[in-house]
Design brief:
Layout lengths: L25 E7 L14 H14 L3 E5 L12 H15 L6 E5 L3 H10 L3 E4 L8 H7 L4 E4 L17 H18 L7 E4 L8 H9 L1 H5 L4 E4 L5 H7 L7 H13 L4 E4 L2 H19 L5
Helix pairs in contact: 1-2, 2-3, 3-4, 9-10
Amino acid sequence: MAIGAGPSSGEDGFGERGLSVTPIPRVMGILNVTPDSFSDGGRYQHLDTAIARAREMVAAGATIIDIGGESTRPGAHPVTVAEECARVLPVIEALRDQVDAAISVDTSTPAVMRDALRAGAGMINDVNALRAPGALAVAAESDVPLCLMHMAGEPRSMQKAPRYQDVVGEVRAFLLDRVAACRRRGIDERRLILDPGFGFGKTIEHNLRLLASLDTLVATGFRVLVGMSRKSMIGAITGRGVHERATSSVVLALAAARKGAAILRVHDVAITVDALRLTQRLDDYETGAMGT
């Protein structure tokens, strides 16, 4: 089975830096401009280091750069709108004409979304699935791709004994409910991307069940984004520290690709892209696409 087949709806028409369906998943490079993100907090707070990191990821094969100014790790505390804008807007403005990639803003705050779009962002990635008051209005006023993620609770408390009767069914139902909310606001469904929210209010078992059943979410016809890079579930299973999880992150990324994920949100772009290219080449030979 070819990896990253994406939805059946075909071309989505977002332009040369858009998010049309590709034979293999797009790789979204994570750029946290925060002091407290779980993996790289503080490393890219300064504009010059953030720009350099974004260029490095694009050179390695990332076609989307996801810029976040507020940590969503378990136990994280919110920041003010002014502080979040001060972190992300200069980076977006600097990168919009400097990298050949789509610029995504990772935020749940409507005011930040609006200002980021004005600054040049071409995608909204919202862990709160546009539930904040005013978020749907900002989304409806724009024409950019929108990622809707499932999260049980909020970052400060989401990992305190999360419970589900049927995690796969409940996550799918939640995301389709958010799709319906977008539809009611007149938002084109082709703009929507779904993210099951690995690690956001889920136990290890919940995460593994979601990954094993990811194809059921892909079957809805919407593009699916998966972010499992360096997450605590890897540490719990392997015993590896956060900066020793690159190999395991690639293994999970390939598993998600096999299930049909269209976008992979990762820290380690180069090795993820290499793994995807090699896997796709092998698939081509197995299906006869490369001849004999």
